[in-house]
Every structure is written in C-alpha cells, then in structure tokens.
Amino acid sequence: MTLQFNDETFRGDYTYSNSSAAVRRFPFPFDRDSYMYSVNIEPHPGGPEGSPFEHAFDVDEHYVAEMRDRAITLAGDPLRCQSLPHMELAGWDLLELIMVSKARDYPALFSLARDGDRWHWTNRPLGIEQRFTFLDASTLPCGPMEYITRQAQGDFALLDAREGNLWMDAGMITSQADWSLDFDVGMNFFEWHAPVPKARGMGVFDKALKFLNAVTQEQSYRRLNWTMTVNPRLDTSPENYHKWGPEKRTVTPDNVGTKQFLRVELQSFWRLPRSNALAFPIRCYLASLADLCTQPKWGRRLHRVLRDLDPDLAEYKGFALNRAMIVDYLARHDDGAPTSPGIFPDR
Ligand code: HEM
User: Which end of the chain is flanked by fewer CB atoms within 10 Å, N or C?
Assistant: First the structure.
C-alpha cells in the first residue's frame, strides 16, 4: 500500500483537507437516522479492507502532519503527556503493542527487529531509527509511552485496573474534544465521565465498566464517538478554549459547509499483558459537512440525526449555538429518501 502524506495544518491557516479516498473511508458514526448514547462496542480490529477498522492502528494521509501538530501542542504545554510513576510498565506494554502492530500492518512504513530485549525500530515516514533495550527507559530519549505516542495518531489514555474500577493514571492527550488530562489524571471511570449528560441515569456507564473489566488480551474492542468542531482543529482542549471557542462565531450560512467539521473518535480497548492496564486509544477523524455530503446517504442521515438530537447533547457537544445553521445546510442534502442500514456509504 502506498500512502501520500499531506502537508497540512490543524491551526492558524487550517490547510487540512481530505482526499476523496479519505472521505469515502471516513468512519461515519451513525448506523441509523437517530442517535442516543448506548454501549456501542464491537470487536476490533477487523472490517472492510481499506476501512479505518481494518488494522489495529490506522495510519492514513494525515499521519505526518498530525505528529507535527502533537509536537507543537506538547512544546506549548508538556502536561498534555503525564504518567504516574506506577504506569511505566503499562507504557512499555503500549510501546510493544504499537510497534508490533504497525510493523505487521504497514511493513513498507515501519519495521521492528527484536533480539531478546535489544530492539531496533524504524519509522520511515518520520525518519526515525532507534536501537534500545526493552524495559530500560534510559535507552530511549523519553519515557516509553511518550516515545511511542509521539509516533502514533490519536490520543492515548492508559487506565490502571484496580478495585473493580479503571483509573486514568497516564495519557498522551493533545487532540481531545474539550476535556483535560491534567484535570482528569488520577480519576476513576465514573469521576471522569461525570460531565456527560443523561448517560449515567441510563445505566450506560455501569454496563460499559463491567464490559471493560472483562476485556482480555486475546480480544480488543472498539466504539465510535462523535462531536462537532469548527475548523479542522485537533487541539480543542479546555486549556486552549480561548483560541478555538471564539471561532464558533465565525460560522455563517455561506461558510458552514466548509468550516463546520464532524469530529469522529475511533476508540479502542486493549488489555495489556504485563501491567494488566487497559489502553484506550482515541483516534480523531475530521470531515467537513461539504465533504460528508458528497456521499448522499451520509448527507441525508446527518441531517436527520442533528435535527432530532436531544438538546442536552447538542449543548454538551458544544454546537447548540450553530445548530440551526448546520441543520438548514444539511436539509438541502436530504431529499427524504430512506437510508440503508449501517455506517458505510452506498456504492
Ligand atoms: C476506559 C476508557 C474510557 C475513557 C478513558 C473515557 C474517557 C472519556 C472522557 C475523558 C470523556 C469526556 C468527559 C468530559 O466531558 O469531561 C468521555 C465522554 C464520554 N464517554 Fe468515555 N471513556 C472511556 C470509555 C467509554 C465507554 C466504554 C463508553 C461506552 C458507553 C463511554 C461513553 C462515553 C460517552 C457517551 C461520552 C460523552 C461523549 C459525547 O457525547 O461527546 N466511554 N469519555
């Protein structure tokens, strides 16, 4: 497989764009014409060839630019990457999982040679070559979690498993939908989910935690989550709200199609072998309304979902201000025809 990496930005002049191939493989999150929270978890990896679900960690045309954006965010705020002292082993587990998966799934881009604990990692897109001793942090330029997540798209939370709960004790979080690792670090599953409206009362989180506690090394899982973002910005953190919050007011009926993005998180769940921690990668995909509407099924469905969405969810997801404008734009792409089941576009 050959990949051309885009030279693009996720801030400032926002030159991010999706090729038509990237639009067609976008992980559209709605399998029906309405949406409410649910425990929407399924086995991962696996899915149609070429889809973002095919491999353990999807690498796409945005890889190099996303890694550059992460480095900028970290330079401005090192607390986006934190690991409590007892999480170093989980960091090594994650490094192993990502290196082994990428070398297996993208041999033209990555390779890993292992001779006992002496490892040799090559990352061709980023021009990195590293020999190191597995489990010896002094042989890497930084801690193992930071090292590997500077080379992997998406955010990563590492959850310590104890007392029947999960604890957010480490993470690399630079492309989050308005939550803060520095605020959440050390919290448990119910504490960090406290701001989510409606879901706790529906029993969603009790069921989800039970499920996650039973995840084994043999089978990993995924779910999709979504929100809306103005401009293709990865760093929509509370710390930088003053930079992106005011941009919501720049949306007009004329530019809403290209300025308003659907932000989809491909979240996956992995039990790690040595630490028994749970790895929670949160891979962010962005597509403008105009790009999504090139697939007629998605235009129709997105219109119906956003038109009928519970107002508390629109408020929580931060697009209540522009909801009417968004729905008006999408209405022009909804001819009232029925939509087929499932998330994939019609051929
Ligand atoms: C252990 C892995 C998980 C982590 C680290 C995690 C973390 C988070 C965080 C930090 C938020 C944002 C809360 C805020 O507003 O401050 C969130 C939102 C949410 N989480 Fe999780 N979560 C995990 C697993 C799950 C699972 C398995 C479910 C299944 C139902 C779930 C459902 C939700 C929902 C529905 C929201 C609201 C999202 C929205 O409407 O945009 N989470 N999660």
Answer: C
Catalytic site residue from 68, 114, 200, 223: 223
Asked if the structure places residue 295 within a domain, the reply is no
pTM exceeds 0.90 for this model? yes
183 assigned to some structural domain? yes
pLDDT of res. 200: 82
- Please report the atom of ligand 1 found closest to the CA of residue 280: 2
Give me the number of domains the chain comprises.
1
Residue bearing tokens 């690792």: 181
48: in domain:
yes
- Residue written as tokens 């007892």? 86
Active-site residue, 223 included: yes
Q: Is residue 204 part of a domain?
A: yes
pLDDT < 70: residue spans in the chain: 1
286 backbone dihedrals φ, ψ, rounded to 5° = -120, 135
Q: Compute φ and ψ for 206, nearest 5 degrees.
A: -60, -45
Closest among 270, 273, 166, 281 to 220, alpha carbons compared: 270
Cβ neighbours of 47 (radius 10 Å): 17
Identify the residues whose C-beta falls under 6 Å from ligand 1.
37, 39, 157, 159, 166, 168, 179, 184, 192-193, 195-196, 199, 204, 208, 212, 225, 227, 278, 280, 316-317
